[in-house]
């Protein structure tokens, strides 16, 4: 499960880095504009990924319990929930996006920000579809197909970015349109599998469709907290960006967003193992087998920590070269030393990131998504508070060190909470829904 998921995540994140690379050719202001709007874009994507996580949990748990009809209902209802959420998000963001990005420090580059933001916002329902369909496929164990949807979108975006930005002379708006068109293209294989070939294990059907309480509740157990968790992570970036802008202006905002995208690529193995654990652990809970859950969890956790420690060491050595890849214009070259500094400091919490992802998977598979959500809110609020308090010194490295220490602390806190709740489930031996 983890290998194809890792491939999909890598391609997605390389795609986000490619966006910044091509936009960097338009200058530092364009880079800062994309950086400011990125939390809005990520909030949209997070809704689809969150509902997709709920669908993956609901489907895999029902497969483990031998309830194939209920699994199909869960898949169909998760898709309709995504459409409704997409339309609601579109309406909300059209009304609020200008004051939101202005609050984040857009200032003189507000027009550049809106050029990038509006195509993304108006395509919100489409952008969410990839996450939910990938979640449905991942829930039935079709990890390669789940990967294909995400990889298709990312590869086409990489190809279309320079076409829309430079060849069609659309500037920063071209990067947004490339993202939208690529997402539409990625739906083609999914439509083929579900509607034409019809060879999926868990089909999606809208014949006589209606929402049913057991399926909606099961999707929501993980989907709602996971969606809220991902959206909160994205929206917390609003406060991060505001503090960073206060400390060093739009240049420092660009440093943060570019470097964080590179760091995210380095952290893909921990995310992939976390994603892979959810359906495996959920199916094991469906079988009422705590020993199987324990074995899978600790195997995944140890593997993730080992891999992330090795990647952290490698990243420290390669940091100057990795940041060089993000610079296309001379105007952006002045940001390079600051990017290298941030990347090196971030590597110190890579192993702790394994604790957070693996334990979040355990909590979701227990149906304790609200606990994972609470931990995420507290963790990101702590980081926001650290950024705000350290921004007054105007020294970027203080902020990066503050974030790193906070992530390490919450890595161990998250693990302790997850193991405590799992121990309760193992001792009481009741169905998860009764606890």
Question: Can you put this structure into words, describing what you see?
Answer:
- The chain is built from 14 helices and no strands.
- It is an all-alpha fold and 435 residues long.
- It has one domain (2-434).
- The longest helix is centred in the middle third of the chain and has 54 residues, at 213-266.
- It is globular, with a radius of gyration of 21 Å.
- Put simply, the count of helices is 14
Tell me the helix content: over 70%
Task: Report the sheet with the most strands, covering strand number, pairing sense and barrel closure.
Answer: none
Q: Estimate nothing, just give the exact number of structural domains.
A: 1
- pLDDT under 50 segments (min length 5)? 428-435
| Strand-residue proportion | under 5%
Total DSSP E strands: 0
- Helix/strand order, N-terminal first: HHHHHHHHHHHHHH
Structural class: mainly alpha
Specify Rg, calculated over alpha carbons. 21 Å
Which oligomeric state applies? single chain
Cα(first) to Cα(last) distance is 29 Å
Give the integer mean of the pLDDT values. Answer: 84
Q: Please tell me what the overall shape is.
A: globular
């Amino acid at each position: 499960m983890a290998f194809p998921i890792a491939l999909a995540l890598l391609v997605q994140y390389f795609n986000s880095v490619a966006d910044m690379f091509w936009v960097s050719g338009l200058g530092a202001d364009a880079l800062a504009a994309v950086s400011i709007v990125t939390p809005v874009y990520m909030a949209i994507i997070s809704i689809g990924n969150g509902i997709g996580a709920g669908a993956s949990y609901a489907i895999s748990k029902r497969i483990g319990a031998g309830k194939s009809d209920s699994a199909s209902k869960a898949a169909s209802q998760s898709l309709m929930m995504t459409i409704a959420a997409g339309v609601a998000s579109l309406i909300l963001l059209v009304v609020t996006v200008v004051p939101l990005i202005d609050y984040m420090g857009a200032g003189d580059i507000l027009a550049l920000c809106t050029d990038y933001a509006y195509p993304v916002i108006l395509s919100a329902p489409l952008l969410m579809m990839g996450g939910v369909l990938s979640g449905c496929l991942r829930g039935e164990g079709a990890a390669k197909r789940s990967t294909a949807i995400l990889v298709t979108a990312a590869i086409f975006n990489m190809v279309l970015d320079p076409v829309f930005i430079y060849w069609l002379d659309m500037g920063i708006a071209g990067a947004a349109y490339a993202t939208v068109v690529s997402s539409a293209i990625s739906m083609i294989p999914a439509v083929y599998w579900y509607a034409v070939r019809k060879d999926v294990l868990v089909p999606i059907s809208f014949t006589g469709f209606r929402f049913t309480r057991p399926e909606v509740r099961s999707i929501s157990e993980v989907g709602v907290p996971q969606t809220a968790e991902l959206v909160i992570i994205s929206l917390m970036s609003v406060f991060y960006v505001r503090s960073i802008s206060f400390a060093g202006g739009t240049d420092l905002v660009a440093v943060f967003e570019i470097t964080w995208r590179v760091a995210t690529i380095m952290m893909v193995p921990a995310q992939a193992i976390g994603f892979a654990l959810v359906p495996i652990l959920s199916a094991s809970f469906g079988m009422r087998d705590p020993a199987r859950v324990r074995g899978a969890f600790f195997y995944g956790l140890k593997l993730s920590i080992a891999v992330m420690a090795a990647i952290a060491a490698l990243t420290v050595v390669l940091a100057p070269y990795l940041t060089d890849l993000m610079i296309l214009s001379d105007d952006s070259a002045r940001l390079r030393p600051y990017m290298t500094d941030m990347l090196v400091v971030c590597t110190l919490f890579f192993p702790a990131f394994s604790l957070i992802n693996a334990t979040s998977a355990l909590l979701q598979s227990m149906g304790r998504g609200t606990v994972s959500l609470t931990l995420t809110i507290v963790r990101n609020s702590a980081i926001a508070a650290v950024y705000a308090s350290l921004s007054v010194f105007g020294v970027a490295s203080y902020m990066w060190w503050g974030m790193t220490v906070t992530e390490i602390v919450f890595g161990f806190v998250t693990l302790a909470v997850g193991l405590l709740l799992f121990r309760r489930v193992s001792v009481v031996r009741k169905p998860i829904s009764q606890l």
